Sequence to fold (202 residues):
Amino acid sequence: WTEAARATLLSACEDLFQVWAVRQENLRWLQGKPIIAEPIRQLGLTCAKWIKFNPAVLTKWTVVHEFGHAWVADLRGDLLPRAQGRVTLNPLAHADLLGTWVLPGVMIPLPILLGRPLPFGLLGWGKPVQISLANPRTRRMDDILITLAGPAMNILLVVVFAGVAQAAGLVPGAAAGRDFTRFVLTGILMNASLAAFNLIPL
Fold:
């Protein structure tokens, strides 16, 4: 064996080993097991949970908010909300084209495009409840009560969720009951935000 032949053989063996190592790494990557692929997999799971979780939660609280307007208007003798089918908790009755479908539909893919969940959550709103205020003697008071009814429903939910969080001793980021903790704390945040946003005109 000459020195040149031995060097050539060693080089060929090293090349074969590198090809084998790259192939094994690719197989592990496809299986989602390597260190490099794990953050990508976790990010995908996080985005998938965010996409599934936030629109459903936002829809629930928006429906409750709009139902509050319609319910109080109905109690005050306004026949229009009931005639339009708004005195209900059916989400379809309160869905707004832009605020319920278009804007959330644009925001839902953003965590994947940006590579991280949105820090401010999901924005949206329901279809405004139309009222007639037909009684001139109580029109002003009816308008005030109906306007405050939506934020009041959200504030009530904040109190309820805060009570649940206090009673259960929920801590943000805790591993135990993580989905339930996220649901309760997100309920507090979203309902407080909806109430504050709707009180701005006042």
In short: The radius of gyration is 28 Å.
